[in-house]
Amino acid sequence: MQWLIVFGVVMFVIAPVMWLKPSPRQKRQVGLKACARKQGVIVQMEKPPLHHFKGMMPAYRWNYAQDAPGPDFVLLRESEASDALASFHAGWRWRIAPLRPLPDDAETALKALLERLPRDALVIESSARALTLWWWESQGAERFEHYAQSFAALRQMLGGHADHLAPPQR
Question: Which of 46, 56, 73, 100 is surrounded by the most beta carbons within 10 Å?
Answer without folding.
Answer: 73
